[in-house]
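Thread: "does anyone have the structure for this chain?"

Original post by V.I.:
We have the sequence but no experimental structure in hand. Need at least a predicted one for the grant figures.
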Amino acid sequence: MLSGKKIAVLMGGPGSEREVSLASGKAVLKALLGLGLDAVAVDVTTTHVDLPEGTDLAFNVIHGTFGEDGQLQDALEALGVPYTGAGSASSKLAIHKSRAKEKFIAAGVPTARSETVSLSPGVIPELTIQVPLVIKPPLEGSSVGIQIVKVQAEVPGALLKAAEKYSEVLIEEFIEGMELTVGILNDLTLPIVHIAPPDGVYDMASKYPWLSGAKGSEYFCPADLDLETTMAVQAAALAAHRALGVEVYSRVDVLLDSENRPFVLEANTIPGMTETSLLPKAAAAIGISFPDLCKTIAEISLQLRS
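Reply from O.Q.:
Generated one for you, tokens below.
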């Protein structure tokens, strides 16, 4: 299906996850070229994309701003160029944590209690969620801007800090438990990955130690869970993916509390795509190599949008 097709691998982007996206893009490009396909790298630096002439498919690996928020999808649709992954509407929904949370609740997806609050510099809003709690910017990825607050006296300072950069945040109850993530490919769940961060917090540094020099997290796939818990976690992840209407693939983050109850955090529509990223790890656990994963994503996407 991809024979004779020119594939533009879009990477980089203007957002805070640019370096991670470049790593994903280079890995995908290498995989596609290794399969003998006609693929070319396109380093996107602004919110404008110049595609090579004759592009048949845009393979989108721009994480976060522009690539994962629906802007790129809108631009490609205007050009009439098929692209990989989630569409414009589902991208805009999934990346907005508050709007995604509303969809989860409406669909009965297990998720932590939360509230969305507006922020103004120097003003401390009243919260209904009590500590411990998590403060999340609605439109950031890779844990950018997230604060975990466990002491009530620290809440005002954390809100004031958030107000310096954001006009709105999602306040979520803090769930103590195992960090899990579930890949979804063509509406099927992949094996669960257990994430074990070095200090118990899965942040930007522990996700991408090669960027910061910090100690990285450990990953176990398939996660060491009993069958009943495994099925519950995978069901919650798939329900979240479907509630957002995400096409082709995603990676859903889940917390598992001490009573083995899953709580969905969010769905990532453009997850990391290096050979050691979590979605590829999960695919590899059932015998799908990284090049085959890239090929499958491209084929499903092209069939969907041709």
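V.I.: this helps a lot. The longest strand covers residues 188-196.
O.Q.: and The mean pLDDT is 94.
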